[in-house]
Amino acid sequence: MGTDSTSKREMDDFLDGLLAKMSLAEKLGQINLVTSNVPVGDNILADIRDGKVGGILGGLDKISFGVNGPDGLRPAQEAALQSRLGIPLLLAFDVIHGHQSVFPIPLALSCAWDMERVRATARFAAREASASGLNWVFSPMVDIGRDPRWGRIAEGSGEDPFLGSDIARAMIEGLQGQDLSAPDSVMACVKHFVGYGAPEAGRDYNNADMSPTRLHDVYLPPFKAAVDAGAASAMMSFSAVNGMPSHADSELLGAFLGGVLKVSDFDGIPELIAHGLGDEAGRIDEADPLQTLSERALRAGVQMDMMGWGFIHRLEKALAEGRVSQAQIDSACRAVLEAKYKLGLFADPFARFDPERAKRDVLAPEYAAAARETAAECCVLLKNHGGLLPLSKTLGSVAVIGPLADDTRNITGPWAFQGDPAHAVSVLDGIRAALGNGTKVRHAKGANITENRRMVELLNFAGPKVDIDPRPPAEMMAEAIAIAQESEVVIAVLGEAAEMSGEAASRLDIGIPDNQRDLLKALVGTGKKVVLVLMHGRPLTLPWENDHVPAILATWFGGHQAGPAIADLLFGDKVPSGKLTTSWPHHVGQVPIPYDRATTGRPGNPKEDPGKYTTRCYLDGSSEPLFPFGFGLSYTHFVYGAPQADKVELGPDDMLTITVSVSNHGKYAGQEIVQLYLTDPVASRVRPSKQLRGYAKLALQPGETKTARFTLSTSDLEFHDGQLNRIWEPGRFVIGVGPNSRDLQNLEIRWHK
User: 234: burial class by Cβ within 10 Å (0-12, 13-18, 19+)?
Assistant: First the structure.
């Protein structure tokens, strides 16, 4: 019974009739979202039957979490139908990069620059999650992330709002499908509204402070794109932006999330207390601060309280004393009921409880094949000196060394609680399968992921993923060096543990852990050819590695099929095509270092003014990134022609078409991601040095030439002025086209009013 097949009037009539039958307690129950292991009363199923719960996050115990098939969640939905009005439940979970079939982390997926692939992986996740009985997923995270210290950068799409907006749209379309009521669709929840990806010092949960124009030009666009694409729900941010936590920000919630179910983050409303927030006049009930802040969150527009307990326990008193209105409670309840209606739950609450579909759609072979293809497309080749890669399959011996080489517990990355490591394939096993019996593959751990025992405790909060080998580090390294010396090529698989990225996983040092770098230095010291395979959830600082290791492949956390995908790339069955969606610094002291930072009054270009003091912004290092946004190498060689504009003088209603030819002059078939950037050299406000405004992914055979075509209009020139009006200004514009944000060929055009 979705609105695709019935009229809005029919839905409104249904909801009006249901609301008229509901008691205040039942309405408050609908806006209460809980985890099953912390019931309202003594028993979660009894609470559901009593109408005290509108939705559940997770399964019916600490283990199931919607991964044991539909039978794991069926008792909860059955209990809901036994309530007085038989209102079904929202059944939710964090499905971030696949459900039980784990795909690459979102930051990795963004490096494919492929919206069809983004849409397809989201569709796979929706089919699998819905086959487990779930109808609501807390995804996608569309927060722009520009500080790699922040652990949750792994969960988003990088630093650019243009690309991030495209990915947000594709994710919503994939998760929700063409009909939200279809049994294989789930309700998406765009998060975290807003500015959560800009925490001061890169520390998770920290507040953000920025100009209103930056908020509107950089951080809000992906949310707008998601809402425009039909996102049915949105989650608030823990943090405060410009002094206002989103759970209390009535202005932004009303302006950008109208018609969207607005849910708090986990415990988000009680955490307003720690923010030091009171009501709109700065007052608080000191005996019960949750009373004040639950009221304020409701007034601001939050419509469902996740594990805050304030809506169900505090709003009855607030209503009686006139601090919230019946209309505000009804509006919140109606938003929850409308989401359930659009999901088709009133028509058939068990449509997503089909055991036969679960057998077909959970861990389906097609998902594994897609996960392997996707993982390969997301990897980024950072360096390939002398064409070391791809390696020959006729090598006599290969050493595969590193604490992550034979790992299946970390390869899936953070936010993969639903994925069973037993289904993951390690890099070592992927290499062995690729080489067969003709090559001797030797393996040594060489080092622990970290020697910091306190860190190990923190990394194992969700189960054992990291251990410290009982052998002395020197013994482990000696074994690795001996194996390396006996082999023709060394493949070093190093980087982060899964939980070094993700929530509450910010890092002060974003390099490879010191003990792993020591191992790498020793391997390079053998004189053998070394390929560095990185496993990670964020940009890393790699100055030593870039100077001393001939080949570096950034593979991120690639999911269940990462091992075979990496082997496909190492031995040439696939050609790398991924490009970075974040700028990688030389040193953590440079961050944030986004590609679109504005030129300053003393920009300092060492190529143009090598003698001026302005080049010395840092006394001890570069002001430029080590690897720029959009960067990524291939095994083949692409040659760009000069970009061409179909006109150089344009009026306000004109469309501009830019074309550029790209030829494959190498010996491998490959894909090239052609990028277009726009610069507004003179404006009423300081503007970014350049902004991504187009990209095209071309598949080229050796010797083949294709043309990338981009279309621009005045909407691509727009920005927010000081009064937050969206404007464009006439004048000269520079269009840059190339393989990344640094290496561009430019042309100029003029746009007139």
Answer: buried
Q: What is the pLDDT of residue 6?
A: 57
69 pLDDT higher than 70 = no
Residue 480 CB coordination number (10 Å) = 25
Task: Give the pLDDT band of residue 463 (cuts 50, 70, 90).
Answer: confident
CB-based contact 31:332 (threshold 8 Å): yes
Among 466, 562, 451, which Cα is nearest to 516's?
451
- What 3-state DSSP class applies to 544? helix
Please say if the pLDDT value at position 447 is more than 90: yes
| CB of 277 closer than 8 Å to CB of 248 | yes
Q: Which two tokens stand for residue 25?
A: 């307690």
How many residues are present in the chain? 753
User: Amino acid identity of 183?
Assistant: P
pLDDT at 43 (0 to 100):
85
The one-letter code for the residue type at 40 is: V
H or E stretch covering 517 = helix 514-525
| Element spanning 656, H or E | strand 656-664
Please say if 265 is a catalytic residue: yes
Q: Which helix (H) or strand (E) holds 375?
A: helix 365-378
Q: Which of the residues 160, 217, 265, 407 is marked catalytic?
A: 265
Q: Compute the distance between CA of residue 565 and CA of residue 105 in angstroms, rounded to an integer.
A: 14
Q: Which domains does the chain have, with CATH numbers?
A: 1-27+269-342 (no CATH), 380-577 (3.40.50.1700), 636-751 (2.60.40.10)
**pLDDT tens-digit profile of 211-220?**
999 999 999 9
d(CA 97, CA 56): 20
Query: What pLDDT shows up at residue 38?
Result: 67
CA atoms of 48 and 60, how far apart (whole Å): 12
Token code pair at residue 153:
């950068």
Furthest-apart CA atoms within the chain: distance in Å? 81
Q: Select from 494, 497, 500 the least CA-distant residue to 524.
A: 494
End-to-end CA distance of the chain: 49
The reported pLDDT for the residue numbered 606 is: 52
CA distance linking residue 535 with residue 555, whole number of Å: 6
φ and ψ at residue 83, rounded to 5 degrees: -70, 170
What are the strands, taking DSSP E only, across 181-267?
189-193, 233-236, 240-241, 244-245, 261-263
Q: In whole angstroms, how far apart are CA 42 and each of 37, 47, 174, 534? A: 10, 8, 38, 48
**What b/e readout covers 308-335, taking b as 16+ CB neighbours within 10 angstroms?**
bbbbbbbbbebbeeebbeeebbeebbbb
Q: How far is 312 from 48, CA to CA, in rounded Å?
A: 13
Both tokens of residue 398?
Answer: 């290969």
Q: What is the pLDDT of residues 527-542, one digit of tens each?
A: 999 999 999 999 999 9
Tokens found for residue 281: 């006049």
Confidence of residue 616 (pLDDT cuts 50, 70, 90): low
Amino acid sitting at position 365: P
